[in-house]
Amino acid sequence: MSEDQIVELVQTKIYSIRNKKVMLDRDIAELYGVETKRVNEAVRNNPDKFPADFYFDLDATEQNSLRSKISTLKKGRGQHRKYPPKAFTEQGVYMLATILKSPMATQVTIAIMRAFVSMRHFALTYGQIVEKLVHLDGKIGEHDEMLKTIMHALSELVRESQIKETKRIGF
Prior knowledge:
Strands 1-2-4-3 form a 4-stranded antiparallel β-sheet. It contains 6 helices and 4 strands, in the order H-E-E-H-H-E-H-E-H-H. The protein has helices at 3-12, 25-32, 36-45, 60-69, 90-99, 105-167, and strands at 14-17, 20-24, 55-57, 86-88. It has a domain at 3-120. The protein is of the alpha+beta class. Strand 1 (14-17) and strand 2 form a beta hairpin.
């Protein structure tokens, strides 16, 4: 798989939860080629390396929302998750890469960082476009007011010229 393909794959696994761009523990585990429980063990065994802004556990509402978007339930006895999924921010993903040692970890971490940077760049570009549209909307509003003023002045001139024409009597 080429690096561009990995970046595209990673971008499909980045979600917006609590107004943060995050990746789920199961997706990170899949990309790194390890089991999800190894990701969770890394967090549990290194609590000082994972402050609150590096990851968070999804609540029931967030789990249900994700479950409706992507298929997360497996059939069969003992196949359901016992613990809520963890959502890792960009910093949390990077910290996991320093702890988890797998053959794919380095390559995937580079792709993940590029995906986050790409999405951040897109968000900035989108924000700039919105800002320009708001500015243009304001200018259009100003131009509308100017056009109304001009139309009002022209209609007054036309009315005055009609009044002057009707007053002429005789030659």
